[in-house]
Write a structure and sequence with these properties.
317 residues; mainly alpha; rod-shaped
Length: 317
């Protein structure tokens, strides 16, 4: 995700330069034919270019609003995941009764918190179609990773494993039925968050809704120099390319944000959010940096999660 106050043009240019170059060549050809060789037949001055631009703007606005709605819902879901993770960690650490006679109980609480951290990382990788097992091995160990390899839906399996640990805690008397129900409700919230993210991921915008704006933008950009060459003459390429760039950029940006889990520069910053969850939950467990096993460089990197921005690119992923 881009976090700068302004969008660098170099982020749009690689996707738009070919279309703009072709349009520039066409615009120059039209201008030369009309102004130098005086072939006035090439002009379409009667073309109602202003109403066409207005209609196209409305069409693009509808698509952009729909795309932004998907992006914003994805961001809200991950914000809900951050809050739910903190609530679950608090419940694990405060509702499971300690016992001086049974030293296993405190580690079980921490193990449940680590499962919540694992869920955040696993969901991120699941949505981006990446492997989450390096994270799982680091957080839960090789045995848990081998157990989870049997599942295609790893985040759901992590929640199931946490539920089984809660059942074990209830059977051992660490938690009563009322507290167990309260925690289970938050586990259901995790399942709902994952399901909503998968719905956005697996249900793209309707093809015609995604395809037609691009076709209409191209048609408008090719007709534009024919409509303005009579008034602008040799200045037609400059005006045409600037106007075309506006519509092409709007088309590209709305297409990019319509898929918020595709690991692009316009993506929901899931890596930064999952790191935030891990940092917050480990702090709730009162772990020191040494206990976490983090090197000095990694500690500094994770402490700067909110500002984890490349000085060149301005990204948070």
């Amino acid at each position: 995700m881009i976090v700068r106050d302004r969008l660098p043009l170099k982020r749009i240019w690689p996707q738009a330069w070919r279309r703009l170059l072709m349009l520039l060549v066409f615009d120059c050809t039209v201008a030369v034919i009309y102004s130098v060789f005086h072939h006035t037949w090439i002009s379409l001055n009667g073309l109602p270019i202003a109403p066409l631009a207005s209609a196209l703007t409305i069409f693009l606005a509808f698509r952009t609003n729909a795309a932004y709605g998907r992006w914003w819902e994805a961001r809200q879901l991950w914000g809900n995941l951050v809050n739910t993770s903190r609530s679950l960690a608090r419940q694990y650490l405060t509702m499971l009764d300690e016992s001086l006679e049974d030293p296993r109980r405190v580690p079980l609480r921490n193990t449940l918190v680590l499962h919540q951290i694992t869920f955040a990382h696993a969901l991120r990788c699941h949505l981006r179609k990446q492997s989450s097992f390096p994270e799982i091995e680091t957080l839960l160990g090789n045995d848990a990773a081998d157990e989870l390899r049997r599942f295609k839906n790893v985040p759901a399996a992590v929640v199931l494993r946490a539920g089984k640990l809660l059942k074990q805690a209830r059977e051992e008397g660490m938690i009563d039925s009322y507290k167990w129900i309260s925690i289970d409700e938050n586990l259901s919230v995790l399942a709902n968050i994952q399901g909503a993210c998968e719905r956005i991921k697996n249900t793209p915008l309707p093809r015609q809704f995604d395809y037609l704006p691009g076709v209409l933008v191209d048609a408008f950009c090719w007709l534009l120099p024919l409509a303005i060459v009579e008034d602008l003459g040799l200045m037609t390429p400059l005006a045409s390319v600037l106007i075309s760039f506006t519509f092409i950029a709007a088309d590209l940006m709305s297409r990019e944000i319509s898929n918020p889990f595709d690991n692009t520069i316009h993506d929901t910053p899931m890596t930064a959010l999952s790191r935030t969850i891990e940092m917050n939950l480990r702090e709730q467990m009162e772990e020191t940096d040494k206990e976490r096993g983090w090197s000095g460089a990694l500690i500094q990197r994770r402490r700067q999660v909110v500002h984890d921005v490349s000085p060149v690119d301005g990204f948070v992923f």
